[in-house]
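Table 4 source record.
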Amino acid sequence: MSTTTAQVPTGAPTPATGGGLLGLIRRRPILSFIVLANLMSWLAWIPYILSNHGLGIWDFTYPAGGLGGQLLGVLPGAYLGPIGSALFITAVTEGRAGVKAWAKRLWKWRVNWRWYAGILLGVPLAMIVGGYVFAEGPAYLPTAAVLVALVPGLILQMITTGLAEEPGWRDFLLPRVIRRHGPWKAAVGVGAVWAVWHFPLYLTEWGQGDVPWFRPVTLLAFCIALNVVMTWVFNRTGQSLPMAMLLHVSINNFASTAWEQMFPELTYDRAQFSLFAVSAIGAVIVLLATRGRLGYEPEKIGADDG
C-alpha cells in the first residue's frame, strides 16, 4: 500500500512557530531573551547615562540625587529588561497558560526553613569574613539603627532589584540553558550574560567614578562565581525563584547598610574583590560537592516549562 506525504515548501514557517519576528522568538527563545533583555534595559538607561549622573551631556539631575537616579534612572530599565522580556517571550512561546505558570512560580516560598536561615545568616557571615580579609583598617560593630534598617532594606530590595532581575535571569533563562547545555555550563553562561547587562552603567555614577579596566572584569568574574552558587540554591530548592531573589538581594542589602559601616576603609574595588573571592570559594565547593550537577534533578522539577 502506498501513501502520500504532503510536502512543505522549503523556508515556509511551520504551524508551531510561524513566520516573522514572533516566529523567530518561538524558534530561538533563549537568544531572543538575551537580546531583548539587554536592548530594553540599555535603551531605557540612555537618559540616565546622558544625564548629570553619567556623561553629563544632558544637563539634568534626577530628584533626590543618587537615590533618585537609582529609582528613576536605573530601575525602570531593570524592569523593562529581564522581567519584561521574560513575560513577553513567555506569552509569545507558551501563551496564557505559560504566563500563569510563570507568575505562579514567583510565589514558590514554601521551602525548608534551613534555606531561609542559610541565606539570611550565611550571606552576612561570608561578607563579614571577606571584609576582614580585604579591609585595610579596623572593623566596627554596626549600630542598632543599621541593624533595624536591614529588614525594611531587604523588603525594598526584594521588590526592586530582586523582582526586576530574577524572574528573567534565574527563572526564565537559567532553566532553559540548563536543559540545553547542562548545569555548570549554564551557570557560567548565564552569569556572564548577567554581568554584561550591567556594563553600560559603568558610564554613570553607579560605576563609582573613573573606571579602571579591572572593575568590569571583576564584576564579570563575581557574577559567574555567584551564579554557580545561585544555580545550586535554585535547583536544590526545587527551582524556587524567591530563594534566588533572597540570595541576590541579601548581598546588596548587607553591602549597602551594615557592611560599609563595619568596614569604613574597605574601598569599592577591594569590596568587589572580596565579593568575588567569597563567591569563588562557594562556587568551587558546590561544584566539587555536586560533581558539576549543582543540585539539578530534572525528574523532581516537574513538567518541562519550555
